[in-house]
Amino acid sequence: MARFRFFRTVLQGAALLLATGVARGAPVEEIVVTGELREAPLLSTPSSVTVIDQETIRARDATHLEDVLATAPNVNLASGASRARFFQIRGIGERGQFAEPLNPSVGVIVDEVDLSGAATAATLFDVEQVEVFRGPQAGRYGANALAGLIVLRTAAPTATPEARLELDAGAFDMRRAAAVLSGPIAGETLTGRIAAQRNVSDGWLRNAFLNREDTNERDETSVRARLRFEPNEWIRSDLSLSRIEIDNGYDAFTLDNSFTTLSDEPGRDEQDTTLGSLHTRVRTDAGFDVEAIVAASESRIDYGFDEDWTFTGFDPDGYTSTDRYLRDRSSRTLELRLSSDETAGATQWLVGVFDLTREVDLRRLYTFAPGPFTSGYETRRSALYGELGHDLSDRLHVSGSLRVERRDDRYRDSDAVAFDPEETLVGGRLVAEWTTAGGRLLFASVSRGYKAGGFNTDGTLDADLREYDAESVWNYEAGLKGRFLDDTLSARVAAFLMDRRDQQVSTSLVRVREDGSAEFIDFTGNAAEGRNYGLELEVDWAVGARLDLRGSLGLLATRLEDFVNSAGDDLSGRDQAHAPGWQFSLAGNYDLPGPFFARLETEGRDAFYWSDSHDARARGYVLAHARLGWRREGLEVAAWVRNLTDETFGVRGFGGFGNDPR
Cβ distance 203 to 260 under 8 Å? Predict the structure, then answer.
């Protein structure tokens, strides 16, 4: 009943805001999508994509990618660490990583740099735009985008001087300081921007054994620099450099799902990442443009936890253990594109080549291992892709894209496990677009995405469980985008069906050692098929002169077909893990009389299974957030509250074992 009363209160508040802001609003501003192969307005992009702008990031006081993804329909996350670094789109995506290798289903790109699987570094300060592409992105990015792609773009240098200072303080000893400086270096030819932020907090858990409140702390520093060189109208070159230092604690496992831990050896979740990219665009007088992208990153990742969740002596049999994973991760990307320019006429084309090399060295320190476990993993992805579009009439446009990708992997570890798989994968998309007389876009598409096969390296697995096949997905989609109510309302709606073949399913085995302790073995296998289908709606509405509303709704149905998990349970027909049946978000921004403003926001999601290994479920929840502020002549002061109703909700779930020795 409390939830229904909350919804009633929200609706009453919305009605009051509507009543006081009935004057017609200004037209909704145009948003440009930059993560596609060609930049295009959001309402002209024939795919399902959510754009989270800087205004939304600042209004939510978001410091990390995990803080804003609830505004995108059918997007979920798994936070088995201090920050979420694994995401699920339309029910597809990884939930964690305890062994190599990892081939993500959802890619994460920051200023052209691939941070898939390492998104702890996806901090948001001075990020201008987050774009969430739903559905396979084979043409854009290939194997690491079976379910979708998340693209972060930092703010570009400005031609006029600009400076900003931000200070935050809050509960749990939260403090944040940030600054930005941007402007011309050599007139309009060379401009630059530098931004820095530090965000610290004690966290919201208490360690009763150590009598400390900072064992789950956050200490995050981001420094970004950008240069733009534009000597003439034909050449533009963007250099982006970032240094992200995450020095967070990780002490979150409890026996009773409370906010009080008992560990005597709290863990850490640290990541130091240096990343950079150079993106050069050259226009020619031969009817085509040239783009060259060079990107690289280096990361040191240290993730560990108190595996017995308690202190030595708590277990009457003396069981105590820690587990720690230290990774050195590097990646390098080279990409070259040729594309028709704006004078191409009825036919537009694009061709490109892509090459990515990633190396991951792992050192695992585990109490029950005879010594340090080490592994080395290297993957190389080389691809050739192209896109061709043609205007059949003034209103009808058709296009197709194709990507052929070669994958070569090499893996070696200290247990004498070795793999050298090679694979060629093919994906693409066909799209038909119809522009109505009123300027609205109707589109229908069919696309094929793919995810490389792989191998399991964790624990003592049987030979028939060591390898698994590539997965493919056929995505069928239709949608409508456009402006309504005299351009004051922007709406995007899409229906989709995803047909998964040889679906990769992550599960785990629990094996009891001779001393009675448990060994958890993660592995991936193939189900015969899976189905994911649903509906997505997004609306931006300038209701009146003072009120703006923004909302989203995602409906999702999923099922496994012909799948038996590691425990021998036949899960055929069951929902897939981390796939809530519904989720929504609704935010209202209201300009009060004078220099004051207010924001009220709510979000929620349905219950879902935590894993395909057991039947434990996350319960559904609804959250509310509020912000009240004052702004005038470049100065803004605001107070904000997250989770107004103090709702408790889960961000990662495990099950199928008992961990309390009592």
Answer: no
Q: Where does 147-266 show beta strands of DSSP type E?
A: 148-154, 162-170, 174-186, 190-201, 206-207, 218-232, 235-250, 260-261
Instruction: Please name the residues in contact with 262: beta carbons below 8 A apart, sequence gap of 6 or more.
Output: 207, 208, 209, 254, 255, 309, 310, 311, 314
DSSP conformational letter for 156: P
Three-state SS at 26? coil
Give the C-alpha separation, 45 to 627, whole Å: 32
User: Are 625 and 644 within 8 A, CB to CB?
Assistant: yes
CA angle 137, 141, 47 (to 5 degrees): 25
In terms of DSSP bridges, do strands 40-41 and 32-33 run parallel, antiparallel, or are they unpaired? antiparallel
Distance separating alpha carbons of residues 295 and 213, to the nearest angstrom: 40
Measured CA to CA, the distance from residue 653 to residue 643 in angstroms comes to 20
Tokens 């009773």 sit at which residue?
256
Q: Report yes or no: 95 and 84 within 8 Å, Cβ to Cβ.
A: no
What H or E segment, with its residue span, contains residue 3? helix 2-20
The CA distance from 301 to 240, in Å, is 22
β-partners of residue 520 are 510
Q: Compute the distance between CA of residue 458 and CA of residue 446 in angstroms, rounded to an integer.
A: 37
Write out the H or E segment, with its range, that includes residue 511. strand 504-512
* pLDDT score of 55 more than 70: yes
Output the pTM of the full model: 0.92
- Give 117-143 as a DSSP string: T-GGG-B-TTEEEEEEEES--TTTTGG
Helix or strand (DSSP H, E) at 54: helix 54-59
C-alpha 250, offset from chain centre: 21
pLDDT tens digits for range 72-116: 999 999 988 999 989 999 999 988 877 777 788 999 999 999 999
CA distance 350 to 335: 13
Nearest residue to 48 (alpha-carbon basis) of 387, 445, 436? 445
* Residue 469 binned pLDDT confidence (cut-offs 50, 70, 90): confident
Of 599, 603, 583, give the one whose Cα is nearest residue 643: 603
Q: The tokens of 559 are what?
A: 């099922």
Contacts of 397 (CB under 8 A, 6+ apart): 389, 390, 391, 432, 433, 435
Residue 531 CB coordination number (10 Å) = 16
Helix (H), strand (E), coil (C) string for 274-342: EEEEEEEEEECCCCEEEEEEEEEEEEEEEEEEECCCCCCCCCCCCCCCEEEEEEEEEEEEEEEEEEECC
